[in-house]
Design brief:
- With about 160 residues, this protein is mainly β.
- It is built from two helices and ten strands, in the order E-E-E-E-H-E-E-E-E-E-E-H.
- The strands form two sheets. It has a five-stranded mixed beta barrel with strand order 1-3-4-6-5. A four-stranded antiparallel β-sheet has the order 7-8-9-10.
- The longest helix is centred in the C-terminal third of the chain and has 12 residues.
- The model has no long low-confidence stretch (mean pLDDT about 85).
């Protein structure tokens, strides 16, 4: 396997998810650097990132949302087979730009790793379920979702 220390700029694709032994995993969508010279149908690259650094994992779980533009620096491991995502072990993280805050006009389902949340534009409260449909609880507002999920994982041993 070939490894390389590098920095990757990309947009967070989905909410970062907890991994084993205190790690967090997330995907960055990386656009080609020369976007003006490539074909319109040229695919973006997805880089799967993992970090076990407590400061980085805390930021990923509590301060990052889909659409944020990040610079992740670390060790890049080439994919084991063509078509598989490259893997980056992150040792430094920088937020370059934050996503726009969505304005909800109706009910929206969103996924937070192994959890599903339901946003309703008429209320701040957010129902939270596991991806398998188990009730987790009602977050008082969107900012309380991560705390509710964290408490649920502590009580259930991390099994969503």
């Amino acid at each position: 396997m070939n490894t390389q220390h590098c920095a990757v700029d990309g947009w967070v694709d989905a909410m970062p998810a907890r991994g084993p032994r205190g790690t967090v995993t997330f995907d960055l969508v990386v656009r080609p650097a020369d976007i003006d010279t490539v074909d319109d149908d040229t695919p973006d690259t997805v880089v799967t990132c993992t970090s076990g650094d407590p400061r980085i994992t805390n930021e990923l779980l509590h301060g990052i949302q889909p659409g944020d533009l990040l610079r992740a620096t670390g060790t890049l491991l080439q994919p084991p087979r063509p078509g598989a995502p490259a893997r980056l072990t992150v040792d430094a993280l920088e937020v370059l730009d934050t996503a726009l805050v969505p304005v909800l006009r109706e009910m929206v389902l969103d996924r937070y790793g192994d959890y599903i949340v339901i946003f309703d534009g008429d209320t701040d409260a957010v129902p939270v379920f596991t991806a398998h449909g188990q009730w987790v609880g009602l977050a008082d507002n969107p900012d309380a979702i991560a705390t509710l999920i964290e408490i649920h994982e502590r009580v259930t041993g991390g099994d969503a």
